[in-house]
Amino acid sequence: MRIIDLEPRYENSYLACFEEWSSEMKEAGNHKCQWYAQMKDKGLRVKIAVDEQDRAYGMIQYVPIELSPVKGQEMYFIDCIWVHGHKEGLGNMQKQGTGVALIKAAEKDVQSLGAKGMVAWGLAIPVWMKASWYKKQGYKKIDRNGMAALLWKPFSKAAVKPSWIKTIKQPQANANPGKVTVVAFYHPKCQSPSSCWRGHEKPSRPLGIKSFMRNSTPLTEMFFLNGESLTVCSLKVRISTLALP
Question: In this predicted model, what pLDDT tens digit does every residue of 118-130 receive, in sequence order?
Fold first, then answer.
């Protein structure tokens, strides 16, 4: 395993989250590609893990905290860390220490740039981007926004503790009386929300459901059905009930 800066020859694989084999990833569109084109000259940094056969299979991407949904200064924020974990394609490459190697490389990188700390987000539930994993790497929880915990590792005593920029608006309940409206907020830096959206959009079309997809700053996707906040799984269940006679 080698940890290197993202090179042009690995960009397509990185933009597909190393899941070029996935039809869902292809259907998700080119949102991440457009985001990457805008951000690569604004301070976005990406390191990838490459195996002995020169195949990229893991990555960590991080940005100056001023470009994140967090209030802070002179630090970097980890948008995502991911190691391929599916049976398809490269196979499950997790549980081999790649994540630890990636985050250590990123921390060393930002320290060389003069950053006073590294900030990350993690979910309070034991799924992708687990907050508990960051705690094992020396990060401390300092704030929370729903299921998303904010964690940090200061490198300097002068580092100022950051905080979430809280959501202040959401879709109005029953804005279109007599009609079903679904609004999805997503961030183009991740293909997963786009994939979830496509999974909802297809079955909803025959039902005449009015749907909107909005680019925003949340770290995890948010779905609203007539103003009610739902997880994507709950949204699919609710939509399926609308199709029943």
Answer: 999 998 887 778 9
